[in-house]
Amino acid sequence: MTKRKEFDHGLEELNGLIVEMGRHVETAIAQAMTALETIDADEARRIVKEDKELNKIEEKISELGATLIATQQPVAKDLRRILVAFKIASDLERMGDLAVDVAKVVIRLEGQTLIKPLIDLPRMSQIVQMMTYESIQSFVQENVNMAYKMAKDDDLVDALYAQITRELFSIMMENPKTISQANLLSFVGRYIERFADHATNIGESVVYLVTGVRPDLNS
């Protein structure tokens, strides 16, 4: 196998690991939200334990990327692709941590009844799942247009988070006994809002990979 083919094979492996990590993150946030809707603490504990698998994939990406740099000495866009893979893996690892944070809220709510039906939080979760998928696809396909389109959904997530915060504040004002749970649900909204920010960061990395210029898609 020529040196270039070895390098291309390594990049394909790197792409595969990023895709695998993205799927783990999508699944984790979906499962954490389902656990919240049903206050399923046992499911939440399982989600917390499985976060270790995500960390293992990130370690594989770090090791493979470092090996490619050391043995192939890439330059220009080839080097940028590996550096971007490191950054994306870091964002995905943090997104996994935020899914775990949601699961930990579920564990704290064990035995309680929800103070309100959950509508906007699951909607936020669905949007960030799609953002995660599109951000990873934009990386694999080097599709700048998809990265920009994905980032626009961050505004919708921000709007839903603001709406949830206002609603929970009103509930707390009407019934102080709800303060503890309302605060926890507000934390969940914050975790998902930050989750979307990391997906947008991935979009920025894709634009940087393709153009060499890093935009601010979170502004």
UniProtKB/TrEMBL annotation:
GO cellular component: cytoplasm
InterPro entries hit by this protein: PhoU, PhoU-like_sf, PhoU_dom
Pfam families named among the record's database cross-references: PhoU
Designated gene of the protein: phoU
Subunit structure: Homodimer.
Residues annotated as domain PhoU: 18-106, 122-206
The family this protein is said to belong to: Belongs to the PhoU family.
Lineage: Bacteria, Bacillati, Bacillota, Bacilli, Bacillales
Domain of life: Bacteria
Function: Plays a role in the regulation of phosphate uptake.
Protein name: Phosphate-specific transport system accessory protein PhoU
Keywords: Cytoplasm, Phosphate transport, Transport
One of the GO biological process terms: intracellular phosphate ion homeostasis
